[in-house]
Amino acid sequence: xxxxxxxxxxxxxxxxxxxxxxxxxxxxxxxxxxxxxxxxxxxxxxxxxxxxxxxxxxxxxxxxxxxxxxxxxxxxxxxxxxxxxxxxxxxxxxxxxxxxxxxxxxxxxxxxxxxxxxxxxxxxxxxxxxxxxxxxxxxxxxxxxxxxxxxxxxxxxxxxxxxxxxxxxxxxxxxxxxxxxxxxxxxxxxxxxxxxxxxxxxxxxxxxxxxxxxxxxxxxxxxxxxxxxxxxxxxxxxxxxxxxxxxxxxxxxxxxxxxxxxxxxxxxxxxxxxxxxxxxxxxxxxxxxxx
Length: 291
Fold this sequence. Notes:
Blueprint: E1 3-7, H1 17-28, E2 33-36, H2 42-48, E3 55-60, H3 62-69, E4 78-83, H4 89-94, H5 99-108, E5 110-123, E6 127-133, E7 136-140, H6 141-149, H7 159-166, E8 172-178, E9 181-188, E10 190-194, E11 198-199, E12 202-203, E13 215-220, H8 224-236, E14 244-249, E15 251-264, E16 267-288
Helix pairs in contact: 2-3, 6-7
């Protein structure tokens, strides 16, 4: 296979020159070419021009993967991941959440199917836009945590956990429609639609599967103290405190009483009045470690 590595030099684990050099030195031995992103959206353009490669290796986080998905040829190209971001949800799900594991998967791994979420957002300022998400669609509390974590990059991989303790949940009114859930007018502090078990470094959806053709939905409504207990429960893997309404579905539509920011795999989209998500089963082939 011919591999192109798309490297985000601003990814959280690559910000220091020494770390970046170490990653690139080891990656370069396993790929045919390396391209560096220069600005937001550049990864999409690089992936779109990479039609003569059999696979794309993302050296970055979920946000870089999000951009690459918009440009790669998913019908024939394989995706591999070297986790270098802050959350690395997809990498954790694929079992390649370290540099050594990712390199082993690239060198001697095997393909596995992964679902994607086709997401349409209706923005009051930008109209309607369509995206593909591999991991997480979220509004409310999670979006606020991501926004705060982006300002705490100096804390490295702990940024999300610290941001979660500093963020106060705020209720927002929304109308939730799904064939697997009764139509409901809700006052949630947040709503998360997930394709993997991981929400950044939180083990948030233990019953999720990356290839089951269904999305896992969680409606949040806890106050700050209860939310902190829930966060701690997820971080420690205890899972005994879960004040969250959960269900699985193949499609979902949510309309917001006031425009909210939406997180798509770590990328923030502002002023969203409604979103629609549907699960595309086995829409992507990823590289994982051989058993």
